[in-house]
Design a protein that fits this description.
This protein is an alpha/beta fold. The protein is 44% helix and 16% strand.
């Protein structure tokens, strides 16, 4: 390898370290759960997992996974259209469609793949994508892969969205697609889907929503942001993950109008050229959906925990993005300070991570906490106390 290229990489890494944004990976020596052990240390309270409903540690999910492994095997060693489709995959697709209120669903290895294989399949150079500026990286990369005209509107700004729709119309776009996260993952803010749908109707546009940080627990029965905001049936395309509230493993999906899903099965590259979702995950996800349809107890507990944590952290003087989502960003601004704060919290027994550029904009570093239904009131009280102590110790 070129010595000059190695030196080029080393300089970039040195710059990242100097900026205080180098991301060290902590090694966890236990299963995912409310408490985890970092390396050989003592158990620490986990406040930064996407384990919103606690299903990553739920015995019913684990048991379903064991049964799925016994019945369907470890892996398919194939893609879906060759010899990689089992009954458990079709069961999960049908169950997701019923849960989300859509026509059909297609499974992917991840939601990143679902978004990566969406736009280039559906849109051509004659079309336009109008994307929220704070959309997840998978949407951004998916849009980059297609040849459609690209327009970006200010976060949750309906006036700017309308302006971009007018631009796309004036540019003679054949079809227009509005793409947005249902929940913006760094801030815990909900997209204004009723407003988006109204503008889509006005300008004859399609609506695509990535609901990864909402599916399973948002809305009266956990269907997602479209249920919470009363627009079920008005969203053309929903993408989401099985790796957060729905068991916490991996896997993703695209769900929506049947002709859209049919075409994705024929032409979506991550679906056609990636191995099938492991059957153990499909089996566990089916069990997760069954739990969610039996009762709203977990989502109700999550809502109560979130309200308590947000209220108490605000009362203790922390700057928190307002809202009701279990993503609760503790805004600190400085990247090095966020990393230092996270290390101090770990020393006290709370596992959190500092988020900084390029994951969030420059100058908006934060600790992103995530509340779970598996947290007890005592767990949350302990976390709040530790946050308060570190705040005082660092003179914030």
């Amino acid at each position: 390898m070129s010595e000059a290229f190695l030196q080029h990489l080393s300089r970039q890494l040195d710059d990242i370290r100097a900026a205080g944004t180098y991301k060290n990976e902590r090694v966890i020596s236990t299963p995912q759960g409310t408490f985890v052990r970092v390396a050989d240390g003592k158990p620490v309270l986990n406040m930064c997992a996407n384990n919103y409903l606690g299903l990553a540690q739920h015995p019913a999910i684990r048991e379903a996974g064991h049964r799925g492994l016994d019945q369907w095997g470890y892996g398919l060693a194939s893609v879906r259209f060759i010899c990689g489709t089992q009954g458990v995959h079709k069961q999960l697709e049908d169950r997701l469609s019923a849960f989300l209120g859509t026509d059909d669903t297609i499974l992917y290895s991840s939601c990143f793949d679902a978004n990566g294989g969406l736009f280039e399949t559906l849109l051509g150079a004659e079309d336009a994508v109008i994307s929220d500026e704070l959309n997840h990286a998978s949407i951004i990369d998916g849009v980059r892969l297609c040849k459609a005209q690209r327009f970006r509107y200010k976060n949750n700004d309906l006036a700017d969205l309308e302006a971009k729709l007018i631009e796309a119309t004036n540019a003679k776009a054949r079809f227009k697609l509005i793409a947005t996260d249902g929940v913006f993952s760094m801030d815990g803010l909900y997209a204004n889907l009723p407003g988006v749908c109204e503008l889509a109707d006005k300008y004859d546009a399609l609506v695509m929503v990535d609901d990864s940080h909402a599916v399973g627990f948002t809305g009266p029965t956990g269907r997602g942001t479209h249920e919470l905001q009363g627009v079920m049936g008005r969203i053309d395309i929903l993408t989401g993950t099985l790796g957060k509230a729905l068991g916490g493993a991996s896997g993703g999906y695209t769900s929506g109008r049947k002709p859209i899903i049919d075409l994705l099965r024929q032409r979506s590259r991550p679906y056609l050229f990636s191995n099938t979702l492991a059957p153990i995950i499909a089996a566990g996800s089916l069990a997760a959906l069954e739990l969610l349809t039996q009762s709203t107890e977990l989502r109700d507990r999550l809502e109560s925990n979130t309200t308590y944590f947000r209220t108490e952290m605000t009362r203790r003087g922390f700057t928190i993005t307002p809202g009701t989502h279990p993503i609760t960003p503790i805004m600190l601004g400085d990247a090095a300070l966020a990393a230092k704060f996270a290390d101090a919290m770990l020393a006290k027994g709370v596992y959190v991570i500092g988020f900084s550029y390029p994951v969030v904009p420059l100058g908006k570093a934060r600790i992103r906490t995530q509340v779970s239904a598996a947290h007890t009131r005592e767990d949350l009280e302990f976390a709040i106390q530790c946050f308060s102590e570190v705040k005082q110790e660092l003179g914030i």
